[in-house]
Structures are given as C-alpha cells and as structure tokens.
Design goal:
Elements lengths: L2 E6 L6 H15 L5 E6 L5 H5 L7 H14 L6 H14 L1 E2 L4 E4 L10 H15 L4 E6 L4 H4 L5 E9 L3 H14 L5 E12 L5 H10 L3 E6 L2 H9 L11 H13 L3
Parallel strand pairs: 1-5, 1-6, 2-4, 2-5, 6-7, 7-8
Antiparallel strand pairs: 3-4
Helix pairs in contact: 1-10, 3-4, 4-5, 7-8
C-alpha cells in the first residue's frame, strides 16, 4: 500500500528542502522501500536537492503528444494511452534510493482534456507501484487541484514565520478540503523557525485552525549545501534540521 505525502505552501518557504529531507529520512530508516519523488513545481529544482539529473517532464510529454496527434503520427484510444504510458515511465529518473518524476509547466493553449485525463491515470498508476510517494507542489497546488494524485495521506502546509506565509497555508488548507481528492491529514510545518516564536506568530498559527506538526530550525548547513550544489541526503545525522524532520516523520507521520 502506497503512502502519499504532499507538501504545499507559499513560494520560498522551503517546501523543496523539506521534501528532500523527508526522502532522506525514508531512505535511511526504510532501506529497501521504493520511493517516488514528484516535482510538481514548474521551476523543477527538486532534482538538485536530491542530487539527480533534471528529468524530461510530463508537461513536455504532453506537448509532444499533442504535436504528434496533430500530425496524425499517433492514433487514438489504446494506442495513445500506450504511448503516453511508455513515455512517462521512460521519463522517470531512477536514482539509487529515490526515483524522480517532474511534472513541468502547466498546460498552455490548445485542447488538453483527453491527454491530461490519460496522464493523471498514468501518474496515479505509476505511484501505486511505490511504497512512498512524496510530492513537492507549487504554491497554487495546480497538480493537486487537477487530481494529479488521487489520495493524499499527509498534506504538509509548509510556511515560514511570516504572516503572509501562515495565511497562505491557511488558505491552501481550506482549498484542499474542496478538491476532488481524499486528503486524510492536514497540518502545519513551520520552517526556519526560531527557538522561541514571537507572540504574533503563535497567534497567527492558532488562527489557521491547523495542528502545528513541526518546527524546523534554520540550519546554516542547508544554506551551505545549497550553495555548493550538494544533495541534502549528505547532511550529517546530527544536523538540527535532520533531527527535526526525523521527529516529524516518526512522531507525527508515523512512517
């Protein structure tokens, strides 16, 4: 059975960092488990945090599919599904411990309905073959809202201590409840948090109505690794962020 973890929140709050650290935890504590990382942010930089090449994206496959359909190169029905299924699976970047699928940019002009429907089914089917799926979403949760994945076991609303970030997390959590997907658990993760939270931050968190699942400290090692282009899997086990994510994963997410 697949456990799906999705991360959402305002841009710049550290979703990608947290996603990479969660996968570090999974590869360390669940050796032998299959893990699929889905980069659902059009900026596509999760591969850097994971130390993997940037894969061909589902968005690129969709554009190629439309071009081939227009030229009559690819037929309809089962042939089209087979083509897309093959292309998506070939686009998965296979790492030693984590596989990566990039969603790419949202659709542009043109008719995408039938292609997107097939792609959603294919991505969902692909995810079902893994023990864990970790999805790093863009700020607008475009791929969640379009049912890129059908079920989410844990939705982490990631924010920094800013009022805008916390309000954005609240708004996105409310949006998640209206989506045509099953989100089983929603909680707040405060990233780059100081040891003692300002009263205004505490009050803003309380107003979200979300449980505060974790406070992830600001760790200079993360900045150092990012600056050097080093994957976050290489962070030492005693790094403050690593320990904080371990407490989140084991204590709250129960993984």
């Amino acid at each position: 059975m697949t456990t799906t973890i999705a991360l959402a929140g305002k841009g710049g709050t550290g979703k990608t960092t947290l996603a990479a650290l969660l996968m570090r935890y999974l590869t360390t504590h669940h050796r032998g488990s299959s893990i699929l990382a889905i980069d659902a942010d059009p900026s596509s930089n999760l591969h850097l945090a994971l130390g993997l090449p940037n894969p061909r994206s589902v968005g690129e496959i969709r554009e190629e599919m439309l071009a081939l359909s227009s030229s009559g190169t690819v037929g309809v029905g089962i042939a089209r599904r087979d083509y897309l299924n093959s292309e998506v699976r070939m686009a998965v970047e296979e790492g030693d411990t984590v596989d990566l699928l990039a969603m790419g940019r949202p659709e542009g002009q043109g008719c995408y309905c039938s292609v997107n429907h097939l792609l959603r089914q294919i991505v969902d089917d692909l995810g079902h073959g893994y023990d864990y799926v970790v999805m790093d979403n863009e700020a607008g949760m475009e791929h969640l809202s379009r049912r890129t994945t059908e079920n989410v076991d844990w939705l982490l609303m990631v924010t920094d201590t800013s009022q805008r970030g916390i309000q954005a997390a609240k708004t996105m959590a409310e949006l998640a409840r209206t989506l045509a997907i099953r989100v089983r658990n929603v909680g707040l993760v405060l990233n780059r948090a100081p040891a003692i939270l300002p009263e205004a931050t505490v009050a803003a968190i309380a107003q979200t109505g979300l449980p505060l699942w974790a406070q992830i400290p600001d760790d200079p090692l993360v900045t150092e690794f990012d600056g050097l282009g080093r994957p976050l899997a290489g962070l030492p086990a005693d790094a403050p962020v690593v320990r904080a994510v371990e407490r989140l994963a084991a204590g709250v997410l129960k993984i």
